[in-house]
Design goal:
about 230 residues; alpha/beta; D-Maltodextrin-Binding Protein, domain 2; 2 domains; eight-stranded mixed β-sheet; two-stranded parallel ribbon; 10 helices; 10 strands; about 40% helix; globular
Length: about 230
């Protein structure tokens, strides 16, 4: 089970892992909130990749093999527009606030779906005092790539989601990360479950995901690796 923010790299390196080892992966991607609920309800997997905070909380319940945690990397919340569209000014928090108010439609991930970026952004709108104005023209996606897709399709003029998810969608331009004090980064951590059916396979996959040789690829995918080349 893996959070969507690291889906591009888990998918790419997972495919290589399958070819190299003969193992077959059953990859389940969703929001951190949705996956956490499934694990808390008793569903199991060999390897879980969630936000660092979610892994830490679940670890306290004894869900994971002690010492099996591994930091993968982090990504930041960014702003996207349709490819070829004028780039809004997001150089300061006030400029970003005005860009949101001026936009005809704004896309972000539905906080009710449990996505980390959407939960943060919903709180940010409250902090900026523009929640009502923005939510009246919001285009919500269950996951980050759906937010970027809404922008690419022209259903939303501007969107905000993790840059690592936005980069998986063709037809959008990443304007940049949220400015100044609004900056938001989220780290992702993997851990092997106590009830894993194939713990050795999970360890091997984890070694593949954290191979220093892949560090540059993580960076290109919009993720700052927690390991160096």
């Amino acid at each position: 089970m893996s959070a969507g923010a690291v889906q591009s790299m888990v998918t790419a390196l997972g495919a290589e892992f399958e070819r190299e080892t003969g193992n077959r992966l059953n990859l389940n991607f969703n929001t951190v909130g949705a996956l956490r609920e499934r694990l808390q309800a008793g569903e199991t997997a060999d390897l879980a990749i969630l936000s660092a905070s979610a892994i830490e909380a679940l670890e306290k319940t004894g869900l994971f093999v002690p010492g099996s945690r591994a930091e993968l990397g982090r990504t930041v919340t960014g702003v996207v527009v349709k490819e070829g569209a004028p780039l809004p000014d997001i150089s300061t928090p006030e400029a970003f606030k005005q860009a949101l108010l001026k936009a005809r439609t704004v896309a972000y991930s539905d906080p009710a779906a449990g996505g980390s970026s959407g939960t943060y952004f919903a709180g940010l709108l409250q902090k900026l005092g523009i929640a009502e104005a923005v939510n009246s023209k919001a285009v919500l996606g269950k996951r980050g790539y759906e937010v970027a897709q809404a922008v690419a399709d022209g259903r939303a003029e501007i969107g905000t989601t993790f840059i690592s998810e936005a980069l998986t969608v063709k037809g959008v331009t990443v304007v940049g990360p949220l400015p100044g004090a609004l900056h938001n980064a989220n780290s992702y951590t993997a851990a092997i479950l106590n009830r894993a059916a194939a713990p050795e396979g999970a360890r091997a996959l984890l070694r593949k995901l954290t191979d220093p040789a892949s560090a540059a690829r993580w960076t290109a995918a919009g993720l700052e690796p927690a390991f160096s080349a």
